[in-house]
């Protein structure tokens, strides 16, 4: 029951979150910092009230370990959102982040000295190839868009910086996953506690972006007013989009944290990957984002590699072969 609820939370929350984020980014491409801050603030506030009982409940996992985890989590969240300032389209953003499997495997081999089957190495090649195809095609679109303009080189360099930021965030996220795995083995899984400390401890770090956050607060306040359905209240539309984004982000990440305690890591990866695929399709169709045939090829290769890694294809093949083997034995 808990697993089904968690899966529903992931699909509903995360898909809705991508839509609201794109609505925000289309109007103000540099709003990544205020979005991240609002998400962290709401989740930290909810955890402070309901998880720590207003600070009276002590953490099971030592704070020193959370500080390390939080440093990585904060860095990944800020860089992922800030990369949207550097000509990174939402579809490419989603595809790039789907490469978490390759990052996890590479760091698992280097840090944990893990060894994998041939099928998993093949899946990594497929995921890498898919991301490479999509990245190259997006680079061509950036070149075409800036062709003939005086700042064409500047536009391309900004895009390359964005790609570098996404790559760094991908590797940092994988390292955080390995660190989290070792902590849970030692202290047990405490999803609500981890959710709170991962969002509360980084809040002082947003002082570094105070000027940018304040500027976007002003810009959001000046946006066109909209009447909120059911409640009949009027508020600036950008604040409404941000409110939706923050609520759906909480629903999404709560679902993911529940999944990590209820399911295997492979199941969690599969659910999150399928969610990304649906978000990508919706983003392309609804927002009419530029997506060429080669982008579709790259996307298909990424998700094929992901399914191969999670052994879903082999499980389906085994399930299909099962009845046939039984029939042969019966003969």
UniProtKB/TrEMBL annotation:
It is a multi-pass membrane protein. Keywords: Membrane, Sugar transport, Transmembrane, Transmembrane helix, Transport. GO terms for cellular component: endoplasmic reticulum membrane; Golgi membrane. This is Solute carrier family 35 member B4. The chain crosses the membrane at residues 36-54, 66-84, 90-112, 121-140, 152-174, 195-214, 226-244, 256-287, 293-320. One of its GO terms (molecular function) is UDP-xylose transmembrane transporter activity. It comes from Solea senegalensis (Senegalese sole). Belongs to the nucleotide-sugar transporter family. SLC35B subfamily. Pfam families: UAA. It is found in: Endomembrane system.
């Amino acid at each position: 029951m808990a697993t089904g609820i968690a899966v529903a939370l992931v699909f509903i929350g995360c898909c809705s979150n991508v839509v609201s984020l794109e609505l925000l980014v289309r109007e103000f491409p540099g709003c990544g910092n205020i979005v991240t801050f609002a998400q962290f603030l709401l989740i930290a506030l909810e955890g402070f009230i309901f998880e720590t009982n207003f600070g009276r409940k002590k953490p099971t996992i030592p704070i020193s370990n959370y500080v390390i985890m939080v440093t990585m989590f904060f860095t990944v969240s800020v860089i992922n959102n800030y990369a949207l300032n550097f000509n990174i389209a939402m579809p490419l953003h989603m595809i790039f982040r789907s490469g978490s499997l390759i990052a996890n495997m590479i760091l698992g081999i280097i840090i944990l000295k893990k060894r994998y089957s041939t099928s998993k190495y093949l899946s990594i090649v497929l995921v890498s190839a898919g991301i490479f195809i999509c990245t190259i095609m997006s680079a061509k679109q950036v070149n075409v868009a800036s062709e003939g303009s005086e700042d064409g080189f500047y536009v391309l360099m900004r895009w390359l910086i964005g790609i570098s930021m996404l790559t760094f965030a991908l590797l940092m996220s994988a390292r955080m996953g390995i660190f989290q795995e070792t902590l849970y083995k030692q202290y047990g899984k405490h999803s609500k506690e981890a959710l709170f400390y991962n969002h509360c401890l980084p809040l002082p770090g947003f002082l570094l972006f105070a000027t940018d956050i304040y500027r976007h607060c002003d810009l959001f306040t000046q946006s066109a007013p909209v009447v909120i359905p059911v409640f009949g209240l009027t508020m600036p539309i950008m604040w409404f989009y941000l409110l939706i984004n923050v609520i759906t982000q909480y629903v999404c990440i709560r679902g993911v944290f529940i999944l990590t305690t209820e399911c295997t890591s492979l199941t969690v990866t599969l659910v999150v990957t399928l969610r990304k695929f649906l978000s990508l399709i919706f983003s392309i169709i609804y927002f009419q984002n530029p997506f060429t045939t080669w982008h579709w090829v790259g996307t298909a290769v990424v998700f094929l590699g992901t399914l191969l890694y999670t052994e879903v294809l082999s499980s389906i093949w085994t399930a299909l072969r099962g009845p046939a083997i039984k029939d042969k034995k019966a003969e």
